[in-house]
Automatic annotation (TrEMBL):
It comes from the Eukaryota. This is Acireductone dioxygenase. It catalyses: 1,2-dihydroxy-5-(methylsulfanyl)pent-1-en-3-one + O2 = 3-(methylsulfanyl)propanoate + CO + formate + 2 H(+); 1,2-dihydroxy-5-(methylsulfanyl)pent-1-en-3-one + O2 = 4-methylsulfanyl-2-oxobutanoate + formate + 2 H(+). It comes from Protea cynaroides. Belongs to the acireductone dioxygenase (ARD) family.
């Protein structure tokens, strides 16, 4: 099952619901790729010995990994952290997340500053480029177990919007939102789905 994405109804209040527009307006994987968002479908049951995951990590330089459980019973300061995850922000580096259990939403801004909701479920791996405005919400299942991957030492510093002068944001705008953008290419063996 491929990742699903759609434009959200920004008037809807509950962040944990799908928030589809009426009628729904789905977003293609090629549209996400234009924004620099990559994704793969992997087998979370074998993540410790998964050859595909190993190949992705090696080719992209993801040498650090940890696991985060997002639910009231397992995450210290749950309410505060969930609120922070949902605050619109950017990072200096890619945000790489692999859903091992549960499900939730990554929202990202498109070139016209509209929210796209990306529903990730078990087996979905997503990479958000440095500088893209985004946020994370749990869905109604209220549980998400994520593998977090990093290049080098882990950095979790969010830079809340507005960040138009931040070097990562400037680079993102130049690389992914200007009309002069070139096609994004990945090695064929690791093409995002």
């Amino acid at each position: 099952m491929a990742i699903e994405a759609w434009y959200i109804d920004e008037s809807a209040a509950d962040k944990n619901l799908p928030r589809h527009r009426n009628p729904p307006e789905f977003v293609s994987m090629s549209k996400l790729l234009e924004l620099g968002v990559l994704n793969w479908r992997l087998n979370p049951k074998i993540y410790e010995n998964d050859e595909d995951l190993r190949n992705i990590r090696e080719s992209r330089g993801y040498n650090y990994m940890d696991i985060l459980n997002i639910c009231p019973e397992k995450l210290e300061n749950y309410e505060e952290k969930v609120k922070n995850f949902y605050t619109e922000h950017i990072h200096d580096n890619e945000e790489i997340r692999y859903c091992l259990e549960g499900s939730g939403y990554f929202d990202v801004r498109d070139k016209d500053d509209r929210w796209i909701r990306i529903w990730i479920r078990e087996g979905d791996m997503i990479v958000l480029p440095a500088g893209i405005y985004h946020r994370l919400a749990l869905d109604t299942g209220n549980y998400l177990q994520l593998m977090r991957l990093f290049i080098g030492e882990p950095v979790w510093t969010p830079f809340n919007r507005p960040q138009e002068e931040h070097p990562a944001r400037k680079a993102y705008v130049q690389n992914f939102t200007e009309e002069t953008q070139e096609s994004i290419r990945m090695p064929a063996a690791l093409e995002a789905h």
